[in-house]
Amino acid sequence: MGKAEFLVDSGAVYSVVPKKVLEKLGIKPLAEQEFRLANGSNLVTVSAERIWYSARRVTAHF
User: Fold this and answer.
1) Distance from C-alpha of 17 to C-alpha of 27, rounded to nearest angstrom
2) Euclidean distance between the first and final Cα of the chain, in Å?
3) Residues 45 and 16 sit within 8 Å (Cβ to Cβ)
4) Going edge to edge, which strands form the sheet with 15-16?
5) pTM for this one?
């Protein structure tokens, strides 16, 4: 497993990480989630990892 540094938006509801970065780190998908964007289109992401940041549990998506 590799290492990476991230800039985390502590006010964001979701954290998004590029798929290639997660694959390089050896992080496996957990589940899919669908989002509706402001323009009405849908975006399907894969929940990849649950992490803790400042006593909050968050899920990274790719």
Assistant:
1) 11
2) 18
3) yes
4) 15-16, 56-61, 42-53, 31-36
5) 0.53
Residue 31: both structure tokens together: 């589940």
Rounded Cα distance, 61 and 48, in Å: 6
Strands 15-16 and 56-61: parallel
Full pLDDT tens readout for the chain, 62 residues: 677 787 878 787 777 777 788 788 887 777 788 889 999 999 887 766 666 566 666 666 65
**Alpha helices, H only, the chain:** 19-25
Report the 10 Å Cβ neighbour count for 61.
23
Q: Determine the Cα–Cα distance for residues 60 and 62; give it in Å rounded to an integer.
A: 7
